[in-house]
Amino acid sequence: MTMREIRTLVGGRGLVESPRWHDGRVYFSDWTAGEVLAADPDGRCEVVARVKSLPLCTAWLPDGGLLLVDSPGGRLLRQDGDGTRTVHADLGRAGWNDIVADGRGNAYVNRAGFDPMAGEEFRPGSVFLAAPDGTVREVAGDIAFPNGMAVTPDGSTLIVADSYSGELVAFAIGAGGGLSDRRVWADLGDGTPDGICADAEGAVWYADVPHERCVRVAEGGAVLDAVEVERGAFACALGGPGGTTLFITAAEWQGMTEPEPVRPGSGRLLAADVEVPGAGWP
């Protein structure tokens, strides 16, 4: 694998997640603080939203609206550039996790079937579609633990990281946003995928907390590249000038049932240069 310089853009944070490149900055969430932050490529950083939610994931709509998952409130919030916040969709129950929005304004939000941090008994999770008109419906189920998601550049496929099964699972996206033709896009062996992103050659990067790395894989699961980060890698996104910067949110993992899942202050936003630019969503 290629040896790379790993740059720390922002440090001293908590459980950091959900990096998203948008309009010259990388946005990411600090779940511990309940904050969404934006950093420029030099690491200058500001808080752009505060939501008391764990998890706290985000997505950008094609019209520039920022979607925020209010997990305990069971709501999908929209924040505009002037800070105005409205309810984009009523999701219902609590327990929501990751989100991705495609080029048509469809937002896919997933939820686990149980709360591992509370020691609940295992139940598989689901993916829901929040359509542009605010309606919400389940579009995929029986995913052991749905985590990061990405939409391919042509808008035809949703890829879901199943952390418990060690797989990337793909679905065909229909004209109305529905999902069909489920298949295993990649068997990751002992990999534990969390946040993911796609690139212009059709490969996917996945972040892996226990293995402290991000891995680039082709469809089928062949490993093409990897970036070691020496702490739990929770999510990754491609962006920056030319789209060839891999932004990684990482922290020192202590355990799902610990009072502090990550060591306080260990959360970092990292950056590494890669060869193939990002494409698709997020």
Provide the fold topology.
Layout: E1 7-13, E2 16-22, E3 25-30, E4 35-39, E5 45-50, E6 58-60, E7 66-70, E8 75-79, E9 85-90, E10 96-101, E11 107-111, E12 125-130, E13 136-143, E14 146-151, E15 157-162, E16 167-173, E17 179-187, E18 193-198, E19 204-208, E20 213-217, E21 223-228, E22 232-239, E23 245-251, E24 267-273
Antiparallel strand pairs: 1-24, 2-3, 3-4, 4-5, 6-7, 7-8, 8-9, 10-11, 11-12, 12-13, 14-15, 15-16, 16-17, 18-19, 19-20, 20-21, 22-23, 23-24
Give the key terms:
282 residues; mainly beta; Neuraminidase; four-stranded antiparallel β-sheet
Overview of the structural elements:
- With 282 residues, the chain is mainly beta.
- The protein has one domain: TolB, C-terminal domain (Neuraminidase, 6 Propeller).
- Helices cover 0% and strands 52% of the residues.
- The strands form 6 sheets. The chain has a 4-stranded antiparallel beta sheet, with no helix packed on it. A 4-stranded antiparallel beta sheet has the order 2-3-4-5, with no helix packed on it. It has a 4-stranded antiparallel beta sheet with strand order 6-7-8-9, with no helix packed on it.
- The radius of gyration is 17 Å and the shape is globular.
- The relative contact order is 0.17.
